[in-house]
Specification:
By secondary structure, this protein is of the alpha+beta class. It is built from 15 helices and 28 strands.
């Protein structure tokens, strides 16, 4: 086969067209030149990357097919879908030109493929006979007289739910059908012989007054297959939001619904929280109003509920939301897991031509049960991801022991890094004489010396469970008392400052002649705003307030090299622990009132310190 080839990316970006000489035996992979194959290359030589494979693997297969002039559209994310004339196929095409089991669509590692099941009239892809071939967006398949057009589309995302619950009515609910989901859960999670389901149904004690409760062998097989396909689809979800979005996609692909909402149930606060919603157009802009009583009954009774004709129903027919939205049929199934309901899936229709029936309710119940597992896993993944992010963020500021205590606190610590008021002690430290010393060093040596010094100074801060705020040139800022509250934050700050001065003295003792470095430290205590502060693009965990400004001025305007100077509030909290010398009151820059600072001489239990 002669072919003029071009690079894949060039083919997408230009009008490059493949030229293919018609073969003697026109079978795949030879492709006929023409508009449908412009900007294509032979899939056998397509250097598809793993990223492209993943993207293709997550596509939804949309089939638009025509039989004798009638057109229908089907979407699926299933791993396999059979096509044929027989009633047990997933896509039944009743036409004599179609074999009973003609072909099947299979989702492979690179995307969906079409597979001929030894059919009488074969499968033709873009007029050429194939036995198995990867599908591309825009392909055309002929199965007998049926013509199927292929679309590979991105999964539509559901909107954040804008849902209003209609007020509950006190009248008794008249339900067309209900299913006890614990019985359905037993079926889906047990190895039941599908040929003896009648016996199993009796042993399972299905309520006799619940239409559609008993499951036939045929129905059970379909439900188990639906659950298998749903489980495979939900398995690759990476977050709770993606999981909920895919659940709604499965519901819309499997059932004739027009609107759908997924709500999660907060058992601790007894609240139903809407999460995602969708309509036939994809994403409704207007809010959806659903019956609070249907949702509450679904949760409280652990039963899936079917209302076949909502307008005629004694309970819902008079509800304002039902009348205004012209709801004709509705279903609600609980997300049931280990005896608990963690949410509900609600769907309805306004079209009078087709109501939901018990088979639809069985399918929705099965999807809800398998979805509950996925929701729990998605929630767990989100929690793990949040904890990892939190640990990574905290590790930048806090000692490992503090990080462990925060992440293991089960919410006892202030949630996340949100801004809030708190009592802290703020410490500013600045290296003196470093600039003049740096003039005689190479840039990389300057960085090496700073890193060595700051490593020791940060160790002192972390030893007393302080929080590192930032480095600024040859200075640093830290605070004590957040994110973990510390009643003795002032004492910790002063002890850390004295340790820092001692560590720097050790550095100087081993330094080359002329490379001695001194440090000023200022500390102040009081109320601040602490938390993540900044823009959506970048936030820093820091403290803000007058206490911070005073600590900074004490370091830059009062403290001398080698000294630790503290504010009056810090002194009052630590006077019994440290020997301090009162200094003259000073008016710091930017303040009207004076501040009385104190020079820390050392610990009271240290004989070397004097007043």
């Amino acid at each position: 086969m002669a072919m003029r080839t071009c690079d894949f990316e060039d083919a997408l970006a230009t009008d490059c067209e493949l030229e293919v000489h018609e073969p003697d035996n026109p079978t795949w992979p030879q492709r006929k030149a023409g508009p449908s194959w412009q900007r294509r290359i032979d899939p056998m030589s397509d250097p598809t990357t793993q990223e492209q494979n993943d993207r293709l693997h997550k596509k939804i297969l949309r089939l638009t097919y025509q039989v004798r002039g009638n057109e229908r559209v089907v979407e699926t994310e299933a791993s396999e879908m059979t096509v044929g004339r027989a009633g047990d196929t997933d896509l039944q095409i009743v036409d004599e030109s179609v074999s009973r089991h003609h072909a099947k669509f299979v989702r492979g590692p690179q995307g969906y493929e079409i597979v001929d099941l030894n059919s009488k009239n074969h499968v033709k892809l873009n007029t050429y006979r194939v036995e198995r071939q990867l599908l591309r967006h825009g392909d055309r398949i002929d199965i007998g007289a049926a013509r199927i057009f292929i679309e590979l589309i991105d999964r539509p995302k559901s909107n954040p739910a804008n849902v209003v619950f209609a007020e509950a009515d006190e009248r008794p609910m008249q339900r067309t059908g209900v299913i006890a989901v614990d019985h359905m859960d037993l079926l889906l999670n047990s190895k039941v012989d599908l040929n003896s389901l009648s016996d199993w149904n009796s042993k399972a004690s299905w309520p006799k007054d619940e239409p559609g409760a008993n499951v036939s062998a045929s129905d059970a097989g379909k439900l188990l297959r639906l659950v298998s396909d749903a489980a495979e689809t939900l398995l690759s979800c990476e977050s709770l939001d993606e999981t909920l979005d895919r659940i709604l996609g499965l519901v819309f692909n499997s059932l004739p619904v027009e609107r759908g909402v997924i709500c999660l149930y907060d058992e601790r606060n007894d609240q139903i929280v809407p999460k995602v919603m969708r309509n036939l157009e994809g994403h409704p802009d207007d809010r959806i109003t659903i019956s609070n009583q249907i949702a509450q009954c679904c949760i409280n009774e652990k039963r899936a509920i079917l209302v076949q004709d909502a307008l005629a129903d004694r309970q819902f027919g008079g509800a304002q939301s039902v009348i205004m939205l012209d709801i004709r049929s509705a279903m609600c199934a609980p997300l049931y897991r280990d005896g608990r309901v963690i949410g509900v899936v609600y769907v309805d229709r306004t079209s009078p031509s087709e109501h939901f029936d018990t088979h639809h309710l069985q399918a929705l119940s099965a999807l809800a049960i398998i979805s509950a597992v996925a929701v729990e896993q998605g929630t767990l993944r989100d929690n793990i991801a949040r904890e990892k992010d939190m640990r990574a963020k905290l590790a930048r500021y806090c000692a490992p022991a503090v990080v462990d205590r925060i992440t293991n606190s089960n919410g006892a610590v202030h949630p996340g890094m949100e801004s809030h008021e708190g009592e802290v002690s703020v410490l500013f430290a600045d290296l003196t004489d470093f600039t003049s010393m740096a003039e005689n060093l190479r840039p990389r040596d300057v960085i090496r010396v700073l890193n060595q010094i700051f490593e020791r100074l940060c160790g002192a801060v972390f030893d007393y469970e302080g929080t590192l705020d930032k480095f600024s040139g040859d200075g640093m800022m830290a605070f004590f008392g957040a994110p973990l509250a510390q009643p003795d934050h002032a004492e910790r700050a002063v002890r850390a400052a004295l340790r820092m001065q001692a560590l720097l003295a050790d550095v100087n003792a081993n330094a080359h002649k002329g490379r001695f470095i001194s440090m000023r430290i200022g500390i102040n205590s009081g109320p601040v705003v602490v938390g993540d502060i900044g823009s959506p693009q970048r936030k820093d965990y820091t403290v803000i307030g007058d206490v911070v400004n005073i600590a900074s001025r004490l370091e830059s305007s009062v403290a001398q090299p080698g000294q630790v100077v503290i504010g009056p509030r810090t002194y009052r909290q630590t006077a019994s622990l440290f020997n301090c010398q009162e200094l003259e009151a000073v008016r710091l820059k930017g303040r009207i009132r004076t501040v009385k600072p104190y020079l820390v001489l050392g610990r009271q239990d240290d004989p070397a310190s004097t007043r």
